[in-house]
Amino acid sequence: MQVCKDAPAVKLLKLDTKEGVASVLAKSVTTRKNKKLKMVNFMKKQSPLSPEKLEDTFAETDYIIDEKSGLRRVRPYYFTHHKFALKRWLGMSVFDMMMKEFSLHISTPEKLEQTAERGYMLFNMEIINASELKNRIIKDGDMISTKDHRHEPPVRIPLPEVIADTDEFYVVNKPSSLPIHPVAQYRHNSLIFLIAREYKVNYHVIHRLDRLTSGLVIFAKTKEVAKRVSKEISDRVVRKQYLLRVVGKFPDKAVCDKSLFEISAKKGIYRVAKADDDEKKVKTALTEFELVEYFKEADQSLVRAIPKTGRTHQIRVHTQYLGCPIVNDPVYNDPLFGKERFVERQQREDITEEMAVNGLTKTKNWGPKGYKISEDDNRLDMDFERDPLW
């Protein structure tokens, strides 16, 4: 994050240097809406993969190829995360927001206070002390920055295979385990970071695949192509197909038109909507299915799914609702969803957000950084001793 010539306040006041910004702040200049300018008004987030930032981004860390376990690991590194206030944060104190939204990284109030005392937290580019955390109320336009010692989860070693490289498109076969964008704990172990580092390319993402899903990912080489194809996808001109292995014998053909309800925005977990659900959290969804092959000995089916809408986790929720959850789905085939997940057109409907966040098997007995700690965990030394706070 740096003073940027394209930031609104910089363009308005025709400033070029940080010294100019400091002098303006000292004079308490106000905007046309009579709001006092803050340091954050002169800042603008830049893509970490932009030509100006690329060298600094890759200098943060490097990959460790662990041939024994077949995993690509990221050497732990320090990272400062800047985030402008989200709509759901407005009116909350910084303390409440951090404990609700970032408990994975800052697990206790004591650690949050330690973070602030060490100068690892900024509010609108100014250090915020521990004593201020509960009194600072977040407003629209505010920015919160935190310094973190990151320990990214590992992904599988194979690099994405380049399928096509044309004048308009760049297409790769994404391996399972790799998210497309930086998300949650993933940054360098994401598809766009990996191909930028290994293949020296940075194009426009047109669509997404879940982290655990393998398959073709299409990048557009220009904004115009990205806009055109995105519209074709939203207009359902583009037809997408998925192959999935599910529990049980799937019917020859099936259609599920059940809308989806967001149980947890924090974790992105859904279920089929009920009549009394909050309409703001309900999205329509439609998926067509057909059986490809049934494996009797394993009691599993290979199924082709053709989504007619593009909702998050749509196929995963619909297969569970039809009584045949995806075999290795760590969320929707979790015991948390009960035996109802194996019964056609039934579901467990009493799952709360707290249960969804804390009750999944995959998150029980995990360490402070989200890694499962067990005797057979062969992960590399993650360097926790380097900085006890993180």
Radius of gyration: 23 Å
User: Main β-sheet, in a few words?
Assistant: 4 strands, antiparallel
**Approximate shape:** globular
CATH homologous superfamily title of the domain at 242-363: Pseudouridine synthase
| Broad structural category | alpha+beta
Strand order of the largest sheet: 5-8-6-7
- Beta-strand portion reads 15-25%
If classified by CATH, what would the architecture of the domain at 242-363 be? 2-Layer Sandwich
What is the C-level CATH assignment of the domain at 242-363? Alpha Beta
Low-confidence stretches: 1-6, 365-390
Q: Mean of residue pLDDT?
A: 83
Q: What's the total number of strands? A: 20
Q: Provide the CATH topology of the domain at 242-363.
A: Pseudouridine synthase
Q: Give the termini distance in whole angstroms.
A: 22 Å
- The number of distinct helices, counting runs of at least 4 residues, comes to 9
Pfam families: PseudoU_synth_2 (PF00849)
GO molecular function, one term: RNA binding
Domain Pseudouridine synthase RsuA/RluA-like: 169-320
Protein name: Pseudouridine synthase RsuA/RluA-like domain-containing protein
